[in-house]
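Memo to structure team: turn this sequence into structure tokens by end of day. - J.P.
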Amino acid sequence: MNRRYSTDEIIPQSGMYFVYHEPHRLIRTVRLFSGDRFPRCSQCSDRVKFELLLEMSDVGQQHIHLYELEAQREEEEEAR
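Reply from structure team:
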């Protein structure tokens, strides 16, 4: 099993990360860049866990700095 990282830790490796967060429905994977910090949940600000799925180079990539992961509203969840 790969190491799981927490909100506010510095991202060690650019790549695709699996997102673990029980209280709210968040996206399941996210691309993050090394040197940034792992994002929090926008709804509860609780710590979110991340596991590296695929290392990716960030050379030539446009960096979008992600500070929060948006939680889906209850109405959106019920519609699914």
